């Protein structure tokens, strides 16, 4: 088998064998969970994992449990063949760089394998075991998507139980997901070390996301303004740090964010609706009236980009910036 060959498995037993073989060889296993439609953000997580781990498992599974019946489960981009080609190219690159690890296997299970007792989208009809992380799952993204983090935590714990990785990698772009999964691992004593990779962006600053393909030309052109508004808000924080202040008020930072959002999209005829903007602590996601410049906080937001053409639906964009202070541990 050449070092760039990647096994694709749809069932669980090959991962038991992979884990056993890795342990016998004193090698580590890292898992990078994805929903496919791989982009440079995913690839950077896998690349990072391969620097310090021997065997990388990438899961590709569009998880029904994290979609409400009204959401885009059916239309979610599925690009398995090109995903696999990207992983194979990455292995060639990892080999030429002399990295420690390679992508050894892709786990692309069927819904039946992950949910042997079924998974209706309506949560009231769901039976069996699920993971809830309260009240974190009800905050921020949990407002418009109350089902979401229960679905995410449940599938991630299933993946952990199947792959039994030493390490699992997640992207900061989904910052609340990171906070919730860290909490799940801590509270349930899950023996997996979580690594959070930085957000990879398009050249114009838009955070890469599989759903960006829904935007179309006009909305795509206006979308980077959202990150610019967050950067403007961050500038207030950085100025305060520089001038040695002890706290920064929420209102100062948010005012600058809203200034940045004002008029965004006018040129392209695109409307942005801010769903939430938050400055919260790292563990409980409690909103902070004043941010301690030593401790920092998470500045995060979601916007709804309204349709500009007949066949379009609203697209939600999420993004965040860590307001870092000297004692920030993130
Ligand atoms: N731009 C990015 N930079 C770094 N990591 C990312 C980025 N986008 C997604 N990830 C991470 O990749 C993993 C898999 O994410 P997922 O497959 O849902 O992709 P996505 O682009 O976030 O899709 P969606 O558009 O559905 O939000 C998650 O840990 C996610 O945080
Ligand atoms: C972690 C995850 C793969 C679980 O389905 C998903 O929420 C994602 O892609 O961020
Ligand atoms: N990356 C988050 C997956 C979702 O929105 O369903």
TrEMBL record:
Group of enzyme by EC: ligase
Catalyzed chemical reaction(s): (R)-pantoate + beta-alanine + ATP = (R)-pantothenate + AMP + diphosphate + H(+)
Keyword Lipid metabolism included in the entry's annotation: no
Any one Gene Ontology BP term: pantothenate biosynthetic process
InterPro entries per the UniProt record, alphabetical: Cyt_trans-like, Pantoate_ligase, Pantoate_ligase_C, Rossmann-like_a/b/a_fold
Molecular function GO labels: ATP binding; pantoate-beta-alanine ligase activity
UniProtKB keywords: ATP-binding, Ligase, Nucleotide-binding, Pantothenate biosynthesis
HAMAP family according to UniProt: PanC (MF_00158)
Family, per entry: Belongs to the pantothenate synthetase family.
Name by which UniProt lists this protein: Pantoate--beta-alanine ligase
């Amino acid at each position: 088998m050449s070092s760039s060959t990647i096994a694709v498995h749809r069932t669980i037993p090959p991962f038991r064998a992979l884990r056993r073989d890795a342990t016998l060889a004193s090698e580590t296993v890292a898992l990078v969970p994805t929903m496919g439609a791989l982009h440079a953000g995913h690839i950077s997580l896998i690349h990072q994992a391969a620097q310090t781990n021997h065997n990388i498992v990438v899961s590709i599974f569009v998880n029904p449990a994290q979609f409400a019946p009204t959401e885009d489960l059916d239309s979610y981009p599925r690009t398995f063949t090109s995903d696999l080609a990207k992983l194979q190219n990455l292995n060639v690159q990892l080999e030429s760089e002399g990295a420690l690890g390679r992508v050894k296997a892709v786990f692309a299970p069927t819904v039946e394998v992950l949910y042997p007792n079924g998974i209706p989208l309506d949560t009231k009809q769901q039976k069996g075991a699920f993971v809830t992380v309260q009240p974190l799952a009800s905050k921020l993204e949990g407002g418009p998507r109350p089902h979401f983090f229960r679905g995410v935590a449940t599938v991630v714990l299933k993946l952990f139980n199947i792959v039994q990785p030493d390490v699992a990698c997640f992207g900061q772009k989904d910052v609340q997901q990171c906070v919730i999964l860290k909490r799940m691992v801590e509270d349930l004593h899950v023996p997996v070390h979580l690594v959070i990779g930085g957000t990879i962006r398009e050249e114009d600053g838009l955070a890469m996301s599989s759903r960006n393909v829904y935007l179309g030309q006009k909305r795509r052109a206006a979308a980077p303004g959202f990150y610019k508004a967050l950067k403007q808000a961050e500038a207030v924080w950085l100025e305060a740090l520089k001038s040695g202040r002890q706290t920064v008020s929420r209102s100062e930072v948010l005012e600058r964010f809203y200034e940045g959002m004002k008029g965004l999209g006018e040129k392209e005829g695109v409307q942005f609706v801010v769903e939430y903007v938050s400055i919260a602590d790292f563990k409980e996601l409690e909103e902070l009236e004043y941010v301690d410049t030593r401790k920092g906080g998470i500045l995060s937001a979601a916007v709804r980009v309204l349709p500009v053409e007949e066949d379009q639906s609203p697209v939600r964009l999420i993004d965040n910036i860590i307001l870092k202070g000297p004692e920030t541990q993130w």
